[in-house]
Amino acid sequence: MKIGLFFGSFNPIHIGHLAIANIMAENTDLKKVWFVVSPQNPLKPSKGLLHEFDRYDMVKAAIADNLKFEVSDVEFHLPKPSYTIFTLANLREKHPNTDFKLILGEDNLENFTQWKNYEEILNQFGLYVYPRPRVTNSSLRSHAQVKLIEAPLFDISATYIRQCVKNNKSIRYLVPEVVEQMIRSKGFYK
User: Fold this and answer.
1) Residues 145, 142, 37, 68, Cα dihedral to 10°
2) How many CB atoms lie within 10 A of CB 20?
3) With b meaning 16 or more CB within 10 Å and e meaning fewer, what string describes 129-163?
């Protein structure tokens, strides 16, 4: 079975994440999409990052009604910072009959060569890449293990959503209603 792994901080999860995951689950050969909540991305600052359990809970609530989606806390139990290659090795060991593919935004393809053991990830797992706005063409686009997926361009950022919350602006329609309620009731991003 092919499963797409959608890694991210999901700080917070928003409609762009959900739409892309749904496109991957419905319009490719992937049977499921797992949202892998990353405690800390080694290439991003941790300032403003909610606790991993809070982000996990928001993802779980956001995807509860879709049987093709699952949330994973696999990286919570691995050394930090989280390196994708170690997560993939762990998942492959636990699920030897599963063919894992990484779901990646085209903007991340530009710096993919900076990832730890990126060649091993590329050759052993492969990438399903969705388009992102304002991206320069990466030389990896033509790699045999890179599959470009046709999808609408989403220019929604979690940074923008957090800024809206901080400034008491509406985030309606940017995140699922259940996520908006969690953010408001728990005072996240204030």
Assistant:
1) -70
2) 23
3) bbbbeeeeebebeebeebeebebeebeeebeebbe
State the helix-helix crossing angle for 177-186 and 52-63, rounded to 10 degrees. 150
Strand partners, 12: none
- Tell me how far apart the alpha carbons of residues 184 and 130 are, in angstroms, rounded to a whole number: 31
pLDDT of residue 102: 98
Q: What is the DSSP letter of 114?
A: G
Return d(Cα 35, Cα 63) in angstroms, integer: 9
pLDDT reported for residue 56: 98
pLDDT value for 43: 62
Rounded to a whole number, what is the distance in angstroms from the first to the last CA of the chain?
42
Taking the chain (190 residues) in consecutive chunks of 10 residues, what is each chunk's mean pLDDT? 96 97 98 95 73 97 98 94 92 97 93 94 96 83 94 91 97 98 96
- To which H or E segment does residue 98 belong? none
User: Which token pair is 22?
Assistant: 């749904």
Tokens (6 digits) for 46:
């941790």
For 4, 39, 43, 58, 123, the CA distances from 174, given in Å and listed in that order, are 23, 23, 25, 14, 35
